[in-house]
Design a protein that fits this description.
Keywords: Membrane, Transmembrane, Transmembrane helix. The chain crosses the membrane at residues 21-45, 65-87, 108-134, 154-173, 194-216, 231-250, 257-278, 290-307. With 346 residues, this protein is an all-alpha fold. It has helices at 17-23, 25-44, 61-85, 101-128, 151-174, 189-211, 220-258, 261-274, 287-315, 319-325, 327-342. The chain is globular and about 50 Å long.
């Protein structure tokens, strides 16, 4: 009697690395969304963009689109560098720093609603004072602006953002969670310092090579006053608010709710983008201009917001992105001449 062969039904090994990443639904949606943003620019922009961007006034829409895609490529390379430098580290258990799922969902929803309400109040207070709305960036940041920005507006912007997005959320969550649970304590200071130095060096070289920042044109007196002033104002008005609101509080909860580092990174990028909705260059006076404003907000901030999340997820330390990829570069490097102009430094 002939015996039939038994079939070996050994399960397939789980996908790893890049293959697993590209098979992640959230990553696929992010890629489609990014490509969609490119299509919108090519279809809607025409010969010129409607934005007041003195720093890149001579560039065509296609040129700005190319820059955005090159910036994404740089962020991806920095991400590879980050993974390589942290490959021997024990991954922090960020999800365990968030509460149980139901509590994390409630806290996440309430914080996002709080952020949306704060953005609405930002707009009203800025307009009532005769200023630009208080977004995460002061008017004139990165791209420059032809609009006048006063010292009073700059100080009020920094104070308001620090209070609303950093101090109040931190005081509220610190009542129940430790500094470690809020990603505010380093688990490996030496490794974090090496990572900060590597990212800061690479990003500084890229910014200097591609943007030719005007900080090197400042006089010694302007440099001595403008650099610490810029560092202090942007630390208060942009860096610490983003760090506390997103990377200290929301990121562990995103990871608890999704169970996916990739999805968490994407949500971090989207949240970071949303906090810039009132950037002074955005235009919402027509459907086409509104579409281009939203698209260029995504093209400008989504990738940096994702990389800040990568640094937090890989280290468990929200301070890493502050020193490696936010406070010094780009803001102090790029925006010091703007602050010199605003405060009439000589």
């Amino acid at each position: 009697m002939k015996l039939s062969r038994t079939t070996d039904y050994r399960p397939r090994p789980p996908r790893r690395g890049l293959t697993a990443l590209l098979c992640d639904r959230s990553v696929q949606l992010a890629i489609i969304g990014w490509l969609g943003c490119n299509v919108v620019v090519l279809a809607v922009a025409g010969d010129a963009l409607p934005f007041d961007w003195p720093a890149v006034a001579t560039q065509t829409p296609a040129g700005r689109l190319l820059d955005a895609n090159l910036a994404l490529a740089e962020v991806l390379l920095l991400t590879v560098l980050t993974f390589w430098l942290t490959r021997k580290r024990t991954p922090p258990r960020l999800a365990d720093r968030a509460p149980e799922r139901s509590v994390a969902a409630r806290e996440t929803l309430l914080l996002l609603l709080y952020g949306a309400g704060a953005l609405g109040l930002d707009f009203l207070l800025g307009r009532l004072a005769g200023w630009h709305p208080f977004g995460l960036h002061l008017a004139g940041s990165i791209y420059g602006t032809h609009d006048h920005v006063s010292p009073a507006e700059s100080i009020a912007w920094a104070a308001y953002n620090l209070l609303v997005y950093a101090v109040i959320p931190l005081l509220w969550f610190r009542r129940r969670y430790s500094t470690e649970a809020l990603n505010l304590r380093s688990g490996n200071r030496r490794a974090d310092t090496v990572l900060i130095g590597a990212v800061l060096l690479v990003e500084s070289l890229v910014q200097v090579a591609t943007l030719a920042p005007r900080i090197f044109e400042l006089t010694p007196g302007q440099f001595a006053l403008g650099v610490p002033l810029t560092f202090t104002l942007y630390l208060a008005g942009a860096v610490l608010p983003a760090m506390i609101f997103i990377y200290a509080i929301l990121v562990p909860r995103f990871l608890r709710l999704t169970g996916s580092p990739a999805t968490t990174v994407i949500l971090g990028g989207l949240t970071y983008t949303a906090l810039h909705i009132w950037d002074a260059w955005t235009v919402f006076t027509s459907p086409g201009d509104t579409a281009l404003s939203i698209v260029f907000l995504l093209l400008t901030y989504f990738a940096p917001g994702m990389f800040k999340t990568v640094l937090t997820v890989r280290t468990g330390n929200a301070w890493v992105h502050v020193w490696g990829y936010h406070a010094l570069v780009p803001h102090t490097l790029i925006d010091a001449p703007h602050m010199v102009h605003v405060f009439h430094l000589r």
